[in-house]
Structure formats: C-alpha cells, structure tokens
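A quick word before the example. In earlier lectures we treated sequence and structure as two separate objects. From today on, think of them as two lines of the same record. Here is TonB-dependent receptor written that way.
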Amino acid sequence: MAQDISFEKKVISIEELIDSTVSIGSFLDLDIKHSPVSISVITADQIQNSGARHLSELLEIYVPGFQYMYNKWNGIIWGMRGVAADRNTKFIFLVNGHKMNTESRDGAFSELNLGFLSDLEKVEVLRGPSGLVYGSGSIGGVINLVTKRYIQDKRSLEAGIETWSLKTGGTTDNFSVSEKLNNGGAIQLYGGIKWSQGSGMETPHIFGRPSWPSPQTRADHPTTGIPATGSSWDTPGNFIFSSDYQIKNWRAYARVTHQVTNAAGMFVLDPWPEIAGVPDSTASPRMVDGKLVSPLGFWGQTEGNGNNRRQYKLSNITIQINKDFKLNKNPIKLNCGVDLVSSKITVQKLPAYNSVAHEEIKEIEAFGERRFNLTGTYIINRKSFQIATGIDSRLFVFGKDLAGKNSQQEKANHPIIANVMYFNQAIFSEAVFFPDPRIMLDMGIRYDLHTRTVNIGGFINSRLGMVYTINQNSNIRLTYQSSGNNGSADNYEPNRNIFNDQGEPYQEPHYEVPTVKPNENSTPIEPVSTRELRALKPEKAYSWELSSIYEKKNLRIHASVSYNTIKDLFAWNQASFRVINIGRYHFANGEIELQYNIGKLSIGLNHVISRLVNTDVLKEGKQMDKLVFKDNEYNTKIIDGQTYYYPVVLKNKQGKDSTTQFTINPVSDGISIDGKNFLNLASNISKAYVDFSFNRWFSVHSDWRLFWGLRGRSDIIHYNPEDSRVLKDYSKYYQYNSTYPYLDIDRRMIVKWNIAFKLALKNSMFQLFIYDILSPQASSNNIHSIRWQQMSDPKIQTDLYSYDFKSYALKVTFFF
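And the structure line, produced from the sequence above:
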C-alpha cells in the first residue's frame, strides 16, 4: 500500500480537469495529492480557453492568491503569499525546471509579459517558500513552465489580432512544428512575434498622489486622475524561438526570447515634450484631458528628463541539456545549462518628441550576465522509502551584455553593475518514508554556499512534511519549510548609483543624475563603502502549513492554512538610496479551492485571505545618521567639458558636517501602520472560472478575479494627525496623500472579468476574447480599470494606474 500511495502514477478522478503529475517542489516522483506542498497546475486546455495575454495574467486567472501590480521603474511585479517586492527577486521562474531568474538585478523578469503561451503543456505553481529544491529566491513561490514535448508529427499556425475600441491594434502570430526524425529522435520547433499599440496614447490615468515627475506637494496638484505619457499594454515587438530535440534518454532544449515593456503608460504626461526642462512663460498653453493648461502651473513641472519614455528590454538565450539513466536500477538525473542575458533600458520613440531640440541619449542602461549550472541527482527507490541526493553547482558572470556593454547613458566608463563573478555550491538530500501504510513522511535539507554568504558559513534550507491518508478520497498534510534569498548582485556590489562617470565609486555626496541641474525632486545620495554593501544578510522565510485534499469522482477540494515569517527583509530604501535588509513580519494565510468537472461543464472557485499577525511595525525600524544638505544649493564641477552638480552639506557650529537621524524600516514600507494589512497586496482575493461546451464544436469560457479592497492603504488615504499610530516622519506626507482621491481603493472591490468563445473545426479553430468587460474603453474613475503600484516608499509612491481597459482579440489556429 505504501508503494501504491507514493510512487505509482495514477490518473485522478477529475483527469479531464487537471493532470496530477508534477515536476515541481520535490526531487522525488510525487503527484499533487501526495506532495506535502501546495501546488497549482494550469493545463494546456485552460491556457488556450482563457486567452491569457501573457504569463502574469494567466497566473492571476487561475492561481489562488496570485496578483500582479506595477512598478514604473521595473514593470510588472508579482505578489503572492504575503510577498510583493519592488523587484521579482522573491519568486523563482523556471522553464522545464531550469531557473531563469536574472541574478544581477531583476529576478523573475524575462517572460512576465512576453505574450506567448501556446507552446506550454502546463504551468506548475508552488505557493510559498521552497528553498529545499530551488535554493535562493523562492520566498513567495515558484512558477515552472512545462513546454510541449513530441507526441506525433504535427504542424500549426496561429494568428491573432487585438483592438481597443477599434482605435488601436496589435498582432500575435506563432507557429509550431513537431516531427519524428530518421535516427529515432524527435524535434519540436516553436516561434512567434507580438506587436501591439495597446490602449492608445494618454489613455491611462494615474490616481492618488503620483510620484516623480509629478510635483507632489503643489497646491494646484490635480485631484482627479492625471493622464500618462503613453499607452498601456503596448510593445514594439516581443519574440520567441525554441527548439526541443529528444532522443532516447537525452533532451536538448534551447529557448531565445526578447521582451520589451514600455513604461510611458506609468509616467505622468509632459504637455511640452519638445522643450527640454521647464517651459517658460513664452510657451503656449496646451490641451490636457480636454482642458487648456498653462506652463506656469502644475503642468509645467512634469519634466521627466526622458524617463517617461523608458523601454525595459531583456534578451535571453537558454540552452539546457538533460540526460536520465540508471545505476544499479536506481535513476540518475543529470542536467546542465547556459544562460546568456542582455538587459537594457532604452528610449521609446514617441511622435510628440520628434522635435526635441537637444541630442538625446537613446540607451539609458546596458548590462548583462552569463549563468552556468551543473546538477546531478541520484535516487534510491525501495518499496517503503525513496531517497534523492545530489549536488548543484552554479557560476554567475556579471557585467557585460551580449554586445559587450556595461554602461549608463552610453558612457562606457560608468557601469551599471560591477564586473564580478559569483559562485553557488549546494548539496541536498530529500527522503520519503512510510512508517505506516497511511503515513508518508517527507524530509529534506539543502546547504548552499554562495560568494556573498561565505563569511557566515552559507545557509541551510529544510523541509519536514507529513501526509496522512484518511481514505482513498482524502488526506491531511502538515508541512514546515524554509527558504533563503541572497537577493541580487547589485545589492552587494557598487552599481550605477554608486559609480561616477569615470567608473570609480563616489567618495562624496552626489545626485542620481549629476549632470542635470537639481530641482525639488532631486535626491542627494551619500557615498557607501563596499564593506557596507556586503554586510547584507540573506533574507529568510519560514512557513508552517496545514492542508487537506478531498478528491472524489468529479470534485477536488483543497484547503490550507499557514503561518509565515519573513525576516531580514530585502527592500529598496529611498532615504539611503539602496537596498537594505532589516526587520521581520508574520502573517497568516488561508486558502480554499474547489474544482468541479462533469460532462460539458468545468468550474473552478477559490478564495484567499491574508492577515498580518504578531507584527509591531514601529519596533522593526533602525535609527541611522544621514547628512543634512542645504536647500536649493549645489556646487558645480567641470569635467571633460561637462557640468556636474553636487549637493552642499550643511555645517554645524563646530564647522563639521551636520547630521540627523532617520528611521530605516522596510517593514513599514509594505505594511499598514497598525500591522494588520499589507499596503500593496489585497487581503482578500476571490477567483472563479467556468468552461462550458455546448457540443464538440462550440464552447464558452469566462473568469472573474475579485480584489476586496487594498485595506492596508487606509492609513495613507484617511490620514488623521491626531492618530498616534502614524510614524512621525510619515505624517507630513500623509496629509498630502489624504488630499488626493484614491477612488476608495481601500474599501471598494475591484473586479476583472473576461469572457471567450471557441469554435473548433476539423483542422482549424476560431476564438473570440473580450477582456476586462467592466472596465471602460478610455480612462475614467471606474475602479475595475485600476492596477496598483508596488511601493518601496509609501511616503511618496502611492500611484494607482488605470491600466486594464476593455479590449477585444480574435485568434485563428490552423492545424496541418
């Protein structure tokens, strides 16, 4: 019975709804029902029926508790299980089990809105930390794309068009070829290209108190939504190409992707784009949102210095080779991989900027990395236990991109990140035992030694789980697991904010862009030593989870409750202008998920509630000294004919540099002051989807996502100067926040609703999709169009974006 419970591949009773076999969350051969961790599987049919436009939308439709938001300096940000950082370094993104995270800076980034999903057999999502299998980074969860493998000779061609109210358009086209080769092997090719104009220029609006380049504290700041420079959902061209070769127990997989995200839809509009800097009184008034505005007021101050046209480009080349064989009847799994990455920030070409008088920088950032990995796993199979043990070796080379560039604003001597090499060596072991036919014990340990953790002896991740089988239909699972996170290399090394244009770390205070004349939004940055940077500790997450699965005939119910701790939190701190890690918070997470499949009908329902517990926000801060600078004063230097501006430090009575204390508190930057809710994660999320087939030709899909208010923002929106809970250094900012309407974002429910129709013929398929049905087709105060910003500093970054407008898409697929 023990052997039957643990290792025999079984088709579950709702086999038409989901495939229980998973390759995520364990070194061993377990299915969903007998895995000690919480896993979601999105099937190829669900991917196709939903018409999800990119990976982030797909995950939000189906995965309990998953949500995505925006950071205008990075793009899409993922959130799940109490985790949402300013970059996606707390989630691990895999393709066929191969880690795709960039280790230099951005984490899970390469395919967040790439837009190609039809090559996927399924998507596996592990909710919560899983450091045992994946090492550094799996704080919030793990997402694994499983691509289709060869089954039979087959060819397909897919073409799709999209539009927002017939005013803009876009196309997504791809092909696939599967063919058996004469040598007994098989090859599968896949490729695609995507282009879109998005919702239209200046249709997105930003609500609340938009951060820079909006002049936030002006008395004439608009109290309604402010139009953005660009268009939501637009891209000048994403593409993908992959090749999958299989023969016997060998597999060689290559994947090339290029993703471009335009950020203009997240930056406030500059009505005088042809004028560099602030326009003077001679500039003519312009129309903004149907109103004539003057350059002498608020709108004259929204100069973004080109940042409002940022394009985030990431090109990734991945090669994976896997071989499975047996030694004394026990499996050995070997895999190796190479990743080559170019990361760039360039300037979007917008017609309104064609007449800009001065020569512009076209490439704001260029850097890259190379990653190499070799992993070997040996598995011992017995009737009453299974043990896996192995090693995982990784080498990271940071600095130059694929074109040999590592530079800021095309200045070859100003690197984005230091040219360094890191290594990570890990040993791991996981075992499953059956002390009783109804009890399965899963336990494992992993030791990682990383370049930046050598001084503390590395760190250990572990897991201990028990699955108790009540009967053939249900079980109970109790799991403890942990995960460490090393962050990214730019946290530990001198980066673009620390290097000067001569390639040397600053020894004196400076501005982020020292060649631009300072204004009220310019932040003085103090120099920081390499020793201070490398004093960062790995972030840690711990989870204790009790869950259960009930499965009978056409019904599956999964319920889970967990208690979680995250400590030594990595977060951007605006005051020190770098990533710091300090503090901890605790939260409870409850999930209920139902899947029902009978005949022509499939239904999925889930709800997740997250609440902070045992967290006193005010105790998680740390006092630090910072220099005091003179207001509206700066020094200048001429270097190679270029003027550089430097802040002036205020001197005290003794003639020494004046300092003041400030509080670093990354916990308060993501959690409400009362310690009960998250600022940037919806505390309650309900989701539902329905698939119904009228006959074998025609079917309908619909899905709903309900976000029950961002309750953590109540402190920001409803500021009360008499409330002692509010931190003293926040109070002067909170009174500005309460001035600008947030559409009652903390109280009202946001609903995202899609619907799709499919007509399947013998050799073709036609699909019609309607996205965001409740949202308008142009900007308004409608709450259902809103996406929220992941805040790294809630004092000044409180943006809400009207981003999800109603749109339509038609997809046609031909099979040969």
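Notice the following. Confidence is low (pLDDT under 50) at residues 1-19. We will return to this example when we discuss secondary structure assignment.
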